Fold this sequence. Notes:
There is one protein chain. This protein has 184 residues and is of the alpha+beta class. 20% of the residues lie in helices and 40% in strands. The chain contains four helices and ten strands. It has helices spanning 2-19, 49-55, 128-131, 136-142, and strands at 31-35, 46-48, 57-69, 82-93, 104-107, 111-112, 117-127, 153-165, 170-172, 176-183. Strands 2, 4, 5, 6, 8, 9 and 10 form a seven-stranded mixed β-sheet that branches. Strands 1-3-7 form a three-stranded antiparallel β-sheet. A hairpin with a 4-residue loop joins strand 8 (153-165) and strand 9 (170-172).
Amino acid sequence: MNQMIKKLPLALALLALAGCNASTDKTDSPVILTIVGSTTIVTPLSVSVSNAQSVGVATIGSMTLTTLVKEPNAVTSNLETVEMESYLVTYTRTDRGTRLPPPLQENLFGTISPGGTFTLTGFPFMRAVQLTSVPLSDLATRGRDAETGTASIPLIVNLRFFGHTLSGKAVASETKTFSVEMLP
């Protein structure tokens, strides 16, 4: 019985953690930062690595961020305005390949008032570092992925934004994903 009582706090803590999800509303911020739209972002279905290398970037045409007030009937103030800090792009493959471009993390400047929007156009999801690293560099130089032997690399692009409210509360968006086929 004594051992059972000692394990009760641990069991309760584990149950509490199991009830949590990876939602962005776990922060103590009064607002939630989100990428407008469904789980996909409209992008070109394919990108030529050689063409993207020549301009040094692969971009998303347009995307909108918004802040949602957690308590819809709550009175908001300018202190809930989100000041953007950065974004992170990571990549996963949908084929048998294992080599990935390095992550892209960059600063991002702008503010979003509570319930407001922030539109990004020509938004970079790959820069020269990603485009000139393996496996994408293989496509540009050899016309094939050296690992899989294929003439394309299907990627899932994972995108997440970070900021803070003017009152100092950290805010992060959910991770949004889209598919892109990288071609020579």
